C-alpha cells in the first residue's frame, strides 16, 4: 500500500528541482553540466505529472504516458547533445561555453 503523502510535498520537491535546474543552466559554463541541468528540469516536470495524475485521476494513466514521452524525448535530446559536445571537444579541445566561438566546421 502506498503511504498517503500530501500533494504539496511533491510540488515542493518538483519546484526545488526545477529551480535548481534553472540555476545550473544559467550559471554553469560547462556543456555537460548545462545538459544535466536541462535533464533535472525535465525530471521535475515528470514528478509533477505523475503526482497530479495520482491524486486527481488515480485510475487513469495519462500522467504516466506523458512522463514516458518526456523521458523518450530527453533521451534523444541527450544523445544529440552529447554528440554535439564531442564534436565541439574535438575541434576546440574544451567544453566550456565561453571558449567555443563558432559552430561551423
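Sequence proposed for the structure above (105 residues):
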Amino acid at each position: 500500500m502506498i503511504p498517503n503523502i500530501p500533494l504539496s510535498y511533491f510540488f515542493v520537491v518538483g519546484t526545488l528541482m526545477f529551480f535548481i535546474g534553472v540555476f545550473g543552466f544559467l550559471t554553469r559554463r560547462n556543456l555537460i553540466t548545462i545538459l544535466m541541468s536541462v535533464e533535472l528540469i525535465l525530471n521535475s516536470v515528470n514528478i509533477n505529472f505523475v503526482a497530479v495524475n495520482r491524486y486527481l485521476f488515480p485510475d487513469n494513466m495519462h500522467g504516466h504516458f506523458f512522463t514516458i514521452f518526456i523521458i523518450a524525448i530527453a533521451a534523444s535530446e541527450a544523445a544529440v547533445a552529447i554528440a554535439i559536445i564531442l564534436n565541439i571537444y574535438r575541434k576546440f579541445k574544451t567544453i566550456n561555453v565561453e571558449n567555443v566561438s563558432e559552430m561551423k566546421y
